[in-house]
Amino acid sequence: MASAVVPVLIAAGVCLAVFLYALRARWFSRLEKGFLATMILAIAGFAFLGALVSGVWQYQAGKDIVHREIVDGLGSAGQIVQANLTEMVNIEIEQISRYGRYLPAKLAPAKRQELAADLRYMDELNQEILQIEAFDRQGGLLSASNVTTAPERVDHTAVGLALDGKRYVSDAYLSAASHRYVLVIGVPILDANGGGAGALVIPYDL
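The structure corresponding to this sequence follows.
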């Protein structure tokens, strides 16, 4: 606020200095009714300068208030977007985890084609899923499906944590394969006894 008011104060000071110099030099005494002219000029000048400084001050104050409201509004909107994104990701994790409960029987070599068909079906069903990968308990890739984009790189962190029985969500990044912002979700595939049978890893389109 001060940066906008200071030039106005300087200009007002200069005008006041010129007026006082004119009084000291008796410029107005040379005029007919010079005293009246001096009083009118003083009253009008001070009123104008006061209104100018006050107007600039109020304008800048109002501008600062509007700016703060816009910033606060953007902050609230960002929090809403973040909350919606978190909820969406949590829902996706739950759906993938439920899907993973039906996969242990299909991880056997004899079921590999059936596993591939199931992954492809899930990939086609959800447009946000850019790729879905199934890994065995040693971290070997059993099958992968990517029907909409080029293959995504394997996120070994997601695979490792999922094999340890932990859910994983990466930070968002710009995918070199799809040229979209994605995050990687990793969930464990659990057998009937709750032990680790493998991992599901999904690059998710934001």
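The first strand starts at residue 132 and ends at 136.
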